[in-house]
Specification:
heterotrimer; A mainly beta; B alpha/beta; C alpha/beta; A: mainly beta; Ubiquitin-like (UB roll); 6-stranded mixed sheet; two-stranded antiparallel sheet; 2 helices; globular; disordered N terminus; C: alpha/beta; FAD/NAD(P)-binding domain; Arc Repressor Mutant, subunit A; 22 strands; BFD-like_2Fe2S-bd_dom (chain C)
Chain lengths: 95, 394, 488
Amino acid sequence: MRRIAAPAARNLSKVARVMFTADGDEVAARAGASVAAALIAAGRPALGRSPRDGRPRGAFCLMGVCQQCVMRIDGVRRPACMVEARAGMVVESLA
Amino acid sequence: MTAPPTYDAVVVGGGVHGCTLALFLARGGMRVALIERGPLCREASGVNAGTLTMQMTRVALIPYALRAHRMWATAREWLGHDVGVVVCDGLSLAFTEREAEILSFRAGKRREAGAPIDLVSPARAKAIEPGLSDHPILAGFCPVDGYASAYLTGLAFRRALVEAGATLFENAEATGVEPCAGGYAVRVADGRAIAGARLALCGGVWLEPMCAWLGVRLPVKVLVNQLAVTERTPPVMRSVVGVASGLLSLKQFANGTTVIGGGWQAVGDRDRGGFALRPEALIGNLRLACHAIPALRGARLARAWAGLEAETADAMPAVGELPGLPEAYVCGGVHSGYTSGPYIARLLAERMLGGEPDLPLFPVERLLAPAPEAAGASPRVPAGADAPEGDPAR
Amino acid sequence: MTAAAPPLRAEAAVIGAGPAGATAAAVLARAGVSTVLIDEAAAPGGRVWRAPPDVLRARAGGPELAEGDALRARVAGAGAQLLAGAVVWSVTELGGRFRIDVMTDGGMTDHGPRVIEARLLLVATGALERVSPFPGWTTPGVIGLAAATILLKSQRMAPGRRLVVAGAGPLLAAVAAGALKAGAEVVAVADLNGAADWARAAPALAGRPALAARGAGWVAAMLRAGVRPGFRTGVRAAHGDMRLEAVELGPVDAEGAPVAGAPTRRVACDALAVGHGLAPATEITRLLRAAHVFDRARGGWLPETDDACRTSAPRLYAAGDGAGVLGAAAALAAGERAAAAMLADLGRGPAPRPAPGASRAARFGAAMGRLSRQRPAATAAIAPGTVVCRCEDVTRAEIDAAFDAGATDLNQLKHFTRCGMGPCQGRVCGDAAAELLALRLAGRGGVDAARRAVGQWTGRAPLRPVPLDALIGAFDYADIPVPDPAPL
C-alpha cells in the first residue's frame, strides 16, 4: 500500500487527520474534508472515467450537481464531494 | 374548395403508427403529409420502455406482434436507420403459487396463439438469466424477445420519411378536419389547411378528440405508464425480464442503463401528459425489479417519467376505415403498441394502397359510442369481451 | 415492509436554506405557521453563507461567516423545523398538497427516505454555475469558480498549487484572493470582461459600498501578490490527460468571442477555476410545470413570478437566485417578500405591499449578472470536437448534426444524442446545448427568441440520482402493492 503525501500537508498540522483508502492507497484527509477535497489535496484529481470515451474525470462542481466525482464509497455510489471523509472509509473509482 | 387535394394521404399523429403508415404510403407512391403537434415520436413512441416481448402482448395480437418483432429486428433493412434493437431471451417470472397459476394459463394461451413460450424451472431460468434472484418458482421463457431504444425512434423514422419524400409538418397542431371536395382538409393551429384524398388519424390517446372532429365518438382511455432508468452500471442482466401479471418490464441496455417499467400508473391526462409520478408506485415498481434482479440495488435511479398509452373499451386495436366516412381511417389503441405498431400500421398502409392485408385489420364499428347527443352511453361491446375464458387473473 | 419514518406535515415547506429560504422560513415560523425548512447541507446558509464543518470553524472567518451565523441564529430562534442533510429527489402536487420526498443522509449509515407534506411550498434553491465548454474542460483539475469557493470557504484549501482563474463576474477576484490567502500561487487571472465593462457596472457597485470595498480588497490582494487581471481574455484550451498541466489563454472581443489569429499564451498550472456566471436552479419549478421565462441578464430561464414571489402554479412560490440571479442581499429581501405573500395567502397576514422599485441590492445583483451573462458569440466559437455534455461525451459537432437531422428543441436533442440524459440530468450542459441549438435556429427574432423556442429540459424526478438500495429499503414481496394484472 502506497502512502500519498498530501501537498497541503502544512495545513494539516493544525487539525485532526483521518486516514482512508482510495483504490487501495492510504490517503490522509483533514477531518471535516469531503472525500473529493481530500483526494484533490492528496494530488489525485482524477476520480473516474467518462462512460462513452473512457476519458479521465475529476470533481468539477463540488456541490453534488455534476456527478463527475461519483465513486463507490463504502460500497455505495455517491458523489465524493458530498461525503465527508471518515477514518477507515473505503473509496473506489468506478470501473 | 375546387382544387383537388394536394396530398394523396394526410396522416395526423407522428408516433410509431403514424410514421410507419406515412412511410409505407410514401414508398407505395403516394404524396403523403404527416402532421404532428410536436416533434416526431416524442410522446408514447419515444418514451416507452422499448420492450419487444410476446409475454406482455395480448393473445389476439400475438400473430401481429411476432411479425412486428421481425420488423424491429430488421429495422436497419426496411427503416434504413438504427433504433438500437437487440433481440434476446425473455423471461416472465412467478414468485407465488397464484402467480405460477396465472403464468401457466397465460403462457399456454399465448403459445396457442403462436408465441414460442415454454415454462421452465427456476434453475433453467437462472441459467438463461444469471442475474436472477432465487425468488422465482416458475418462469415463462420465450426466445423471441428483445428491446429497442425508444428515444431513437423519432430520429430513425424522421430520416426514413424524409428519404421517402413524405412532407413533414412537425410542431404543427391539428385543430380540426373537414370533408372537402375529393377528400379531407386538416386545419392546423397556424390557420393552414392541409388537404388529402385520404385521411388517417393516428393520435394515440388523442384519437378520441381527433375522431370527434368528424362527429365520431370513439372512447379512448388514457393509461399513464410510469418508467424509470438507472444510471450506467456494469452488467446486471442480459435478458428481458417481466412477471406473470405483466406489471414489470426490465432490461439492461448496451450502454449499461437499466429501464424499469411495467405499466404502473403515474398521474397525467391528455391535456397535460404524464405530469407527475406517484412516489409509492415508483418505489413499488423498483422493489419488484430488485426482487427479480437483486444486483440492481447497487445502481442509482437516474430518471423517472410517464408516458400516455391509449386503451380502447375492449383493449383491442382500432384500425380501419371510419363508418360512413370513405377513405378516412384510424390506427391506434394497440395494446403494447410500440411492439406491434410497425406491423399493424403497415397492414393499414397496404389496405389504403388498395391491397389486401396479410392479416385482418381491427374494424372500429364495435368501439363507437352513440353520437354526442346520447353521450354517456357505453360502447356496444363490453370491455374484455374477447378475453380468453378461464384466466385465473380475472 | 420496513417502518418508514412517518410523513412530516406542515402548513409550509421551504426547499433551500440559503438567504431567501432561511429568511422566509424564519418569518413564517415566527408568525406561527408550521414550517419545514429543507436543505442538502448540514446547516442553513446556502452556498454563499455556507457553514464550515465544525472542525474547521475555528479557522474560518470573514463577513460571510458572520452573516451566515446571523441567519442560522434567526432560523433557530424562530422555531422552523429544519431538515438538514436532506436531498430532495421528488416533489409532487396532488389534492391540494405538496409531497416532498427526500433522502436523508446521516453520514452513510442511517440514510433513508423521508416524506414532507405541506400546503404551501417555497422553492429557494439558488443558482447553478454555468461553465462555457472549451477543449479540455473535462480534464481533472479543471473546476468551477463556485467549486473553488467551496474548497476555499468550507474546506479551507486551495484548489491547487498553481492556479489559473478564468471566466466572468465577481467570483474571479474572490477566488484569486482566496487562493492567494490559502497559500496557492495564482499564475493567471483571465477575465472575459474588459475595464470598460467593469466601468459600466460602477454606478451599481457604488450603491453597495461594503460589497464594492470587498471587491476592491480582493483586487488589491491580487495586485500585492503581483497578479494582474488579464482583461478580455478567455480560456482557449486546457491541456493534460490524467491531470491538468497547462491552460491556453487568448484575447476575446467585446462579445466574448476569441479573436481569430491572435497569439495565445500557454500557462503551466495544476488547477483551473473557471465559471461564466450563474443560472437559476429551476429543477423543482420545472418538475411542477410552473411557467418559466427566459431572461439572459438574470441568468437565463427562471420561473415566472409576480412581485410577491408567486409562481403560475397554485401555492407554489419561488425566491432568491432560483427565481432570477440577483445575489445574496437581494435574496434576503425576496425571502421576506415570499413569506409575506405566503402569510397573506394563508389568511394570516395583510396583502403584501407592492415591491418597491429595484433595490440597491437588486441593482448590484443585476450589474453582476450582466457581467457574467451567457455570451452567444462565445458559445458560437466552441470548436466542433469539444465535449459539451460531460456525462455522455456529446460534442458540439454531434449537437450540430442533431439540428441538421431535425432536432430543434432541447428535449428532441436529448433523444437524438443523449445530451443531458446522463446523471447530472443536463444541469451542467443545458445552457450551452440550448444556446448551440438556438444559434442554429435563430431567425430575425435573434438568439433569445430562439432560446425560447428551444425551451428547457422537461423536469424529471429524481432531482438527484438516488441509490436504489436506500430508496427501496428492506421489504416483503407480499407488501409490494402490485396493481391488477394487465388484460390477457
